[in-house]
From TrEMBL:
Residues 440-691 form the EAL domain. It comes from the Bacteria. PANTHER family: BIOFILM ARCHITECTURE MAINTENANCE PROTEIN MBAA, DIGUANYLATE CYCLASE DGCP. Residues 85-142 form the PAC domain. It comes from Rossellomorea oryzaecorticis. Residues 299-431 form the GGDEF domain. InterPro entries: Biofilm_reg_signaling, EAL_dom, EAL_sf, GGDEF_dom, Nucleotide_cyclase, PAS, PAS-assoc_C, PAS-like_dom_sf. SMART domains: EAL (SM00052), GGDEF (SM00267), PAS (SM00091). It holds the Pfam family PAS_4. Residues 143-213 form the PAS domain. This is EAL domain-containing protein.
Amino acid sequence: MQALNRKQDNDRLDVVLKDVVLEYINDMIFIMKVEEGPSFRYVYINESARKSTDIKNEDMGRLLDEVLTGGLGSHIKEKYVQLVENEETIIFRDTVELPGGEQMINESILTPIKNELGKIEYVVCITRDVTPIMREKKRLSNARNRYKSIIEHNLDAIFILDSNGVIKESNIAGCQLTGYQKSQMVNSAIYDLFHSSVKKELEEALKKASNGIPSTLEHCMLNTVTGKDKITSIKAVPIVVEEKFDGCYIIIKDNTVSFEQNEMIHYMALHDQLTGLWNRKALDEHLPLFVQSMEDSGRELSVLYLDLDRFKFVNDTLGLTGGDRVLNKITKRLTTLTNDNCLLYRQGGDEFIYLLKNSSLEETKEKATEVLTLFQQSFLMEGQEFYISPSIGISRYPADGFDGNTLIQKAAQALFQVKEKGRAHYRFYQTYMESSFPNYMIMESHLRKAIEKEELSIHYQPQINLSSGTVDSFEALIRWNNRKFGFVSPGQFIPLAEETGLIHGIGEWVLEHVCLQLRNWRERGNKDVRIAINISPKQFQQEQLVDTIREYLDKYGIPAECLEIEITEGAMQDTQQTLSVLKKLKELGVFISVDDFGTGYSSLNYLKRFPIDILKIDQSFVREIGSSQKDSAITTTIIHLAHSLGMEVIAEGVEEEGQVHFLKEANCQKAQGFYFSKPKVPEELEHYVYA
């Protein structure tokens, strides 16, 4: 009875071994039955093996030759045969080519299982992916070689010292710098190479190195064999072996000839070459120090992140050189606000950052207002006035973060909200401003699948006829509702789509769905309306753009006059190509409109040369109607100019009744904005399209 119970226990143990241990172990396990030949028949593979190979449960009972063909099968069988012949465990590695072109290195252990007669009846193969281990070994080998190369071939002198500061090794550059032979320097003190005034500082540097702290000394006077002193800089870097101090490296750079040049290089490294302002590198160095200073004193600090609105149009109009001249003019104005507690940095491009030390919330608001005030006056270039406005995002220490990167990131998120809400003002960071996506790489990955996963949609914003109150045209606006991260602002993903080239596929998707919507409305007996589609500059450069539009109009049976192609002045840089494309579009019969009109230098030239039907007044002018005499005058002038040229005018961003009244008085035909309606899905717009 006890024997029976032991057998049952052993049987249960076998089940546990197979179903739990073997199935869920990370290594791949193959059990082969040895037959005459010898040949080898699959009797078991675990879950890891099934996931990592093409071998399936239905292959159990088949021979190795039948399951694995080609060179890999022959190689593995050769190892199995070797095991049977030698009756000893075999360890071998093989390289497998993965579908993506990468290689995986496997290490396998073949173990013989003998029966009661001492004959090998089974072979157990345990295979492990050792690719990371092999890569690490290769990395370490490469690192050793690189280390040796860095030391031997470094242009700077490198000395290896023991814990007492005695020279144990020198590279070639060390001999060239000092003029001594290596044998003359080895076993002598490093202090003997330097002027006595350096000894105390050098001793302190070596002491720091012995505690694992690297340090740098500047302007150290080195004695050479010729007696001619050289000005050098020294770096003392600790050598730590198995977490124990084992001497240090002394890296010496000769600055004698290039001392003044290096001073200039240092200046250039921390200053922007165009404007002379501190640059991003300087900001990265200064901000942590200022944060620490504020922490020690219990004071607050503010980061003002400035971005110049629509500055691309300035570059498009004046060229990069002209744009640089404008940036210098802007810099001169911005620097008028700087002082000991207000430092200015050029972040890059058309972005600037103010650091306000010892700044309260109210003082920060005052400074932001002062910055906006600087831009109320125009910038005069080549006889043309340019009105440029900044958008400002603000973060505060310690309320919004405790380190420089976080503060800049939070200020950038606040800046993005300013851009989203109409530009030309400032906002403080709030927690709701956090971006849905952790970074642009993840956003790009999701955006590439947005069409396939049907995450994109189109909302339509009606354009109101101001004289009759009716609607016969809309603007199509794309929306993205990501399944994981939720709604994503077009201001986030459209620039990314343009940068990555995804805008072409997205643009064509919008075109087709707008044509499909127009067909649906027509088939239901609704009146014909016109829908405007935004075409990015990169789409406009496509040679097949006109053909693509024609194909979708024909496919869905849509009259060309129901479609409006909306372009920005940025799409008109290449005058010859622009004129050619616009003429083809006009021959096709679609309407052509110019978005953000009035923000670029060449606007009048475009009206003169290009076949344009509609002008859209930029919301930056509309927003200031009533409060800015100049914006009111510009808006009125645009309307009158368009009328005299036989063009329709649409005002964007209308949000207040006073703006509507002004536009009616100025005889503007149409307007769109939240005052009338936010962008909506087609089902919510049926009352506008009833016949």
